[in-house]
Amino acid sequence: MTVAEGVEVVLATFNGGPFLGEQLASLGAQTLRPLRVVAGDDGSRDGSAELVRVQLETLGLAAELVAPSAAPLGPRGNFSRLLARTTAPYVAFSDQDDCWDPAKLARMHTHLARAEAELGASTPLLVCCDLRLVDAAGRLLAGSFWKHQRYAPARGSGFGSLLVMNCFPGCAMLMNRALVDAVSPIPAAAVMHDWWTALTAAALGRVLICPEPLMDYRIHPANVIGVPQTGFAALARKVIDRGQVRATLAAAVAQAQALHARFGNRLGEAQRRRLEAFCALPGHGWLRRRWDLIHHRIAKHGPLRQLSLLLNC
User: Fold this and answer.
1) Distance between CA atoms of residues 132 and 144, nearest Å
2) pTM of the model
3) Following CA atoms 292, 298, 300, 301 in sequence, which dihedral angle do they give, to the nearest 10 degrees?
4) Do 150 and 304 contact (CB within 8 A), yes or no?
5) What's the half-sphere exposure (Cβ side, CA atoms, 13 Å) at 226?
6) Whole-Å CA distances, 101 to 24, 104, 131, 178
7) Among the four 5, 42, 125, 135, which has the fewest Cβ within 10 Å?
8) Strands (E), 60-182
């Protein structure tokens, strides 16, 4: 492995239970072996922290084990402090209950290296792969997360879409050092670490799509986020769920305001105007809010999602 290929994995754990060992084993089986695993537990009571220490040592993976904070941080805060400890050219988020294909890091690194050769290593870059959905026992539920959720990743990678929705789980991401430096520290206003990361990449650089499903994303009752319900009936319910749409939109606006505070002077004119229009959305009247979303091409992908946004914003 050359220095340019070096990948670190940041692993956040909390009561990892029966699934953590399988994910750790899949890290050890990567054909592009991680330079280091930076792991941090968020106050588990089931021995997760000790399991990580013992298994990483058994696998022969270099590791930095970050002590728990005085108070629980949640996924966003835990991942933020782990990112701050990384030094490698490339960094991947890891959840505790998934299972990666052996070629996951190698395939995603190829996409990033190709983009860096074209755009330069100083450009913040993110590559996101597809996932398979499995149940707690590892049985296949869906061969493609994006198809299951009716997501269009090419459209979802655009800045105007990422302002209002995110279809890229953190566990399916690999970022370059320029993006790590940009997203860190993850602000308290970020909805989640993965949404903030994708939004920052779209604002300052590029989100790349790796169409292959390169991991199993496990669905079980203890998921922090899980998979939203899909299908026409589920999406139709969201059209009339004004409270949920407005709460999500308010959180997205707060996240966008944090993005503007940090990067407003680094954006191009069109991106800056779009961001500022979205940040100002709550202060405008009914008609102006909808006009600004349409005029600045701030849109969810999928007609029902967009209809829900325009009806309920």
Assistant:
1) 5
2) 0.94
3) 120
4) no
5) 11
6) 12, 5, 10, 26
7) 135
8) 63-66, 90-94, 99-100, 125-134, 140-142, 173-176
- Name the token pair of 146: 């994006």
- Report pLDDT digits (tens) over 226-256: 565 555 565 566 556 788 889 999 999 999 9
Length of the chain, in residues: 313
Cα end-to-end distance, the chain, whole Å: 50
Q: What pLDDT shows up at residue 1?
A: 47
Burial class (CB in 10 A: 0-12, 13-18, 19+), 256: buried
* pLDDT at position 3: 41
The one-letter code for the residue type at 78 is N
Question: Mean pLDDT score of the chain, rounded to an integer?
Answer: 93
Residue 60 is predicted with a pLDDT of 96
Q: What are the Cα distances from residue 93, in Å, to 56, 117, 176, 294?
A: 16, 23, 12, 34
Phi, psi of 295 (to 5 degrees): -65, -40
Contacts 24+ apart (CB under 8 A), 151-155: 151/301, 151/302, 152/301, 152/302, 153/128, 153/209, 153/211, 154/209, 155/301
Amino acid letter for position 17: G
28-67 pLDDT, tens digit each:
999 999 999 999 999 999 999 999 999 999 999 999 999 9
Distances (CA, A) of 116 to 24, 103, 153, 208, 213: 29, 20, 21, 11, 22
Residues of the chain under the 50 pLDDT cut: 1-3
Question: What six digits make up the tokens of 144?
Answer: 């493609």
Q: Residue 38, by phi and psi: left (phi above 0), alpha (psi -120 to 50) or beta?
A: beta
Query: What pLDDT is recorded for position 228?
Result: 56
Q: Which residue has the tokens 């070096």?
A: 6
- Contact predicate 293/261, CB 8 Å: no
